[in-house]
From TrEMBL:
HAMAP family: GTPase_Der. Transmembrane segments: none annotated. GTP 1 binds at residues 25-32, 72-76, 135-138. Residues 19-183, 205-386 form the EngA-type G domain. Gene3D superfamilies: 3.30.300.20, P-loop containing nucleotide triphosphate hydrolases. This is GTPase Der. GO terms for biological process: ribosome biogenesis. It holds the Pfam family KH_dom-like. Keywords: GTP-binding, Nucleotide-binding, Repeat, Ribosome biogenesis. It comes from Altererythrobacter xiamenensis. GTP 2 binds at residues 211-218, 264-268, 329-332. Coiled coil: none annotated. CDD domains: EngA1, EngA2.
Length: 491
């Protein structure tokens, strides 16, 4: 733990706040568009008419895991202090007090104006780090404006297009030396505070049991509940609706009482065998149960082993981003049990290579064998499925992974991988930013995915990794949207 963070945690004062970055520039250079881009929402009004923004607007921004507060300001105008534009300018001047950095935005297509030069002189006189942003720099039309901006004496400009999301990775590179440490300290303090919170329950475990007809799903749930809650029998397809039961399970290892929302589903046969309307509705209901589950148990029949339909069901669960476990039921009547278990293990690793090492259990709904171990593992896998890795730790792993196995250089031009951030949880989602990512071999993508799973504690859950490059303004298929386009997703 850094001394900066340790002092912040020991101090009785408020924890470190996120750094604040103010956007400054004359009217209609794209300040509000940049603001919206950074916060990921259209919070600020945008129009071709200058002077739309009149009051300061604040929002939570993030670039590649670096969080900060961004402030949109009114356009700087050279008017009398008593006029409306003059009062708006005074608001902007006041806004830099306490800010950690300023982004001075110019219009690269329009080139420098006397007002740009006046703002630059004022900023040079203030004690605030400035990042010069040459907006609207997409294509050749903005090149001259970018070059011209060097004359402002504010360092190298960041050429970007706030409208199309180009150059945001370069903006990260310019801001990180200024606010990166403070952003990390604020994030770490927030994570520390969350870990200190005594009660942060995830709520009842939403557990769905799925499988082919007659695998013993309803019998297994009755065994767990200790009562004949669900109708069972030798006939396949008795269960039609997805049946949900709220239940309390006592963990025999700790004695803790855990809440479980247990869902039994209809058996899922091969699609070509599902012809009756009622069975189609039942299967659709089972799919919806998977959508709302956190952990899904795929139940196999020990007398039939693993079949292709089981792998299709498992793949569907993983595509939905649910945490998956596999249980071989009817273990009490299994023949050559050791060979069966090893065969299923090998077939799962081969057929579901994206999640090698799925939890596999031998259970018996008739005798209760293995059920407590299965439920205990279900809670553990949900913890992994819900986990977030701190940005600093994530990028330390990323740097080590790149150093141990550098990206290849197809055609003699090396693929550049710059940053990684965790975009979400449940399932874990990661975004890797870089250039020339379209040339990155799938084998290297798998290397990164496998590293995330093995080194960061996501062994048994689906992981989503998205590769994102700056947009190519000459791409005929270009369009608006997020900060980056292109890339691929693996999980």
């Amino acid at each position: 733990m850094s001394a900066h963070l340790a002092n912040a945690m020991d101090s009785p004062t408020a924890p470190p706040q996120k750094p604040e970055v103010i956007i400054i520039g004359r009217p209609n250079v794209g300040k509000s568009t940049l603001f919206n881009r950074l916060v990921g929402k259209k919070l600020a009004l945008v129009d071709d008419q200058p002077g739309v923004t009149r009051d300061r607007r604040m929002g939570d921004a993030e670039i590649a895991g670096m969080s900060f507060t961004v402030v949109d300001t009114a356009g700087w105008e050279d008017e009398d202090a008593e006029t409306l534009p003059g009062r708006m300018r005074a608001q902007t001047e006041v806004s830099i007090e306490g800010a950690d950095a300023a982004m001075f935005v110019i219009d690269a297509r329009a080139g420098l104006t006397p007002l740009d030069e006046e703002i630059a002189r004022w900023l040079r006189s203030e004690e605030i780090p400035v990042v010069l942003v040459a907006n609207k720099a997409e294509g050749k039309a903005g090149e001259s404006g970018v070059l011209e901006s060097y004359s402002l004496g504010l360092g190298d400009p960041v050429a970007l297009s706030a409208e199309h999301g180009e150059g945001v990775a370069d903006l990260f590179g310019a801001l990180w030396p200024i606010i990166g440490a403070k952003s990390e300290a604020a994030e770490a303090a927030a994570e520390f505070a969350a870990s200190e919170d005594e009660e942060k329950p995830l709520g009842p475990l939403k557990l769905a049991i799925v499988g082919r007809p007659n695998a013993g799903k309803s019998t297994l749930i009755n065994r767990l509940l200790g009562e004949d809650r669900l109708l069972t029998g030798p006939e396949a397809g008795i269960t039609r609706d997805s049946i949900a039961v709220d239940w309390k399970w006592t963990d025999p290892r700790t004695g803790d009482v855990r809440d479980i929302h247990l869902v039994d589903t209809a058996g899922m046969r091969k699609k070509r065998n599902v012809t009756e309307k009622l069975e189609k509705l039942s299967v659709a209901d089972a799919r919806r149960a998977i959508d709302f589950a956190e952990v899904v148990v795929l139940l196999l029949d020990a007398t039939q082993g693993l079949e292709h339909q089981d792998l299709k069901i498992a793949d569907m669960v993983l595509q939905e981003g649910r945490a998956l476990m596999v249980a071989i039921n009817k273990w009490d009547v299994a023949e050559d049990a050791s060979k069966l278990f090893n065969g299923v293990r090998a077939a799962l690793d081969d057929g579901l290579a994206q999640v090698r090492g799925l939890p596999l259990f031998a259970v018996s709904a008739k005798t209760g064998k293995g059920l407590d171990a299965m439920l205990g593992a279900a809670f553990e896998i949900r913890e992994s499925w819900s986990k977030r890795v701190p940005t600093a730790a994530l990028n330390r792993w990323f740097d080590d992974a790149l150093e141990a196995n550098p990206p290849p250089a197809p055609g003699g031009r090396r693929v550049k991988l710059r940053y990684i951030t965790q975009a979400g949880t449940r399932p874990p989602r990661f975004v890797i930013f870089g250039t020339r990512l379209e040339s990155l071999p799938k084998s290297y993508e798998r290397y990164l995915v496998n590293g995330i799973r093995s080194k960061l504690g996501f062994e048994a859950v689906p992981v989503r990794v998205v590769l994102k490059s700056p947009k190519n303004p000459y791409n005929a298929n270009k369009g608006g949207g997020g900060n980056y386009s292109g890339g691929s997703e693996r999980g």
